[in-house]
Write a structure and sequence with these properties.
CATH class of the largest domain: Alpha Beta
CATH architecture of the largest domain: 2-Layer Sandwich
Mean pLDDT: 79
Shape: rod-shaped
Strand content: 15-25%
Order of helices and strands: HHHEEHHEEHHHEHHEEHEEHHHEE
Length: 467
């Protein structure tokens, strides 16, 4: 129960994953952007500080040249403007005599300004170690030093209220972008996760239906994700295969019941007639019952063979032997049947060595040879040829029989399938000989194909690997 409580849906996990990735990206971008921008901004402030200092020096120099000397009123205007930018200006002439000093002009304002700067910087940078510094600049006119300017400020850098407002605004933008990114991640992540989880839910629903026996339920919705589309295709294919197997199982049950019903009904009627005294239990009646029992035994034996050959654990006792020699020895066992129907036979003489299970390949040859003779016309011919082509052994068995219609060709290897059920019963076939043949060949990693023309005959082609 604890494990189930900890489980989450794929949609939830994907949404959380998108949210976590978005949050991580926003945090990392914010941190690195802040660090980078603040470093650049500090560099800019320091550079701008020096630029302001030089501008003040240039203004004082220009005033001196315009008025042919220092003017206290002009210096006062320049100094007051500098105070607005956090700078304390002092001007001396060439002999070092003070001409104008911001501290003397408005000492209280200067102290208040420096206190505000210190407070603002400490509020943002608790470990800030700024101190009041003074820089000296010469005043030059006509290549002569006519005075000097002392500019005091907090160093190595300080932020004005406008600078701090810009930094705070930048952080607010980062926070807003982060919140927007997280909300977008939740919305988009939920939509994408739903797009991924919905087809998976359909697969789960279909698979559960298959487990309950609902094999007609298919997944019709296609996914743009290749793996999910492949998964839905596999589930649909599995449903089709299971449905075919279910139909095959039902048909097999019906076919076995149908095949057993005739001999059992015959046995029952004969035995009841003899028990009731209607028939005498003579040798002919008993022989007839024995023949029906033989038919039942043959059918059961064929079913056992089929189950064994179609099993996954079929054991092949492979040896090397001459396939042509094997065919010739089997053909001798059918001489009487061939003579009865006046059928001629031709077998290729070139020996072909293969590595296979000799007993099971013998069963294949017997089944195909027996069918060829069984359905061959009076005075017809059966031709067997064996040769090697492209590293494979090819065996062809062709007869001049009645042929098979095209609509039946694809089904002749199915269990109990008969092109003509009445003829098969008369000839004693159970309808699974070709099924056994195909199972043996496929166990050898080979193939079997059939071609036929009605009225002209049938040709089976068996392909087997040499090794």
């Amino acid at each position: 129960m604890v494990v189930n409580k900890l489980k989450q849906s794929l949609r939830t996990k994907l949404t959380i994953s998108y949210l976590a990735v978005a949050a991580l990206c926003v945090i990392l971008i914010s941190i690195f952007s802040n660090l980078y921008l603040e470093r650049q901004f500090r560099s800019y402030v320091k550079s701008n500080q020096e630029k302001k200092n030089l501008e003040i020096v240039a203004l004082i120099t220009h005033q001196y040249e315009m008025q042919q000397g220092f003017n206290e009123t002009s210096l006062q205007n320049i100094g007051i403007s500098a105070l607005d930018n956090g700078l304390i200006v002092q001007v001396e002439d060439a002999q070092g005599k003070p001409i104008w000093d911001a501290l003397e002009f408005n000492h209280g304002r200067c102290l208040n300004m420096m206190e505000n700067i210190h407070t603002n910087m400490m509020s943002r940078y608790p470990n800030w170690k700024g101190e009041y510094v003074t820089k000296e600049y010469p005043i030059m006119s006509n290549f002569q030093r006519v005075g000097k300017v002392f500019i005091g400020y907090y160093g190595p850098f300080y932020f004005t209220e406008s600078d701090l407002e810009f930094i705070n605004s930048l952080n607010i933008v980062f926070i807003g972008v982060g919140i927007l990114a997280l909300v977008s991640a939740i919305v988009l992540g939920n939509l994408i996760a739903r797009g991924i989880s919905r087809p998976i839910k359909n697969v789960i629903s279909t698979a559960q239906g298959i487990s309950r026996g609902d094999l007609d339920n298919k997944i019709v919705e296609q996914s743009t994700i290749r793996e999910i589309d492949s998964l839905t295709g596999s589930i649909n294919s599995m449903a089709d295969i299971l449905k075919q197997q279910e139909q095959l199982r039902k048909r097999l049950t019906a076919d076995v019941a149908h095949e057993l019903r005739t001999p059992l009904t015959t046995l029952q009627s004969h035995l009841e007639a003899m028990i009731d005294g209607i028939w005498e239990a003579d040798s002919a009646r008993l022989r007839s019952c024995h023949d029906e029992i033989i038919r039942i035994s043959r059918l059961v034996g064929d079913l056992e063979k089929l189950a064994r050959y179609e099993g996954e654990n079929i054991i092949l006792n492979k040896t090397e032997f001459d396939l042509v020699e094997l065919i010739k020895s089997i053909a001798m066992n059918f001489e009487k049947k061939m003579l009865d129907k006046n059928i001629s036979i031709s077998i290729s003489n070139e020996p072909v060595e293969i590595f296979a299970d000799k007993d099971k390949i013998s069963q294949v040859v017997i089944n195909l040879f027996s069918n060829a003779i069984k359905y061959a016309k009076e005075g017809g011919n059966v031709a067997l040829s064996v040769f090697v082509e492209e590293g494979k052994t090819i065996m062809k068995i062709k007869d001049t029989g009645i042929g098979i219609e095209k609509e039946h060709l694809q089904r002749i290897f199915e269990r109990f399938y008969r092109v003509d059920s009445s003829r098969s019963r008369l000839t004693g076939g159970s309808g699974i000989g070709l099924t056994i043949t195909k199972a043996i060949i496929e166990a050898h990693r080979g193939t079997i194909e059939v071609q036929s023309e009605v009225g002209e005959g049938t040709e089976f082609t068996v392909t087997l690997p040499l090794k």
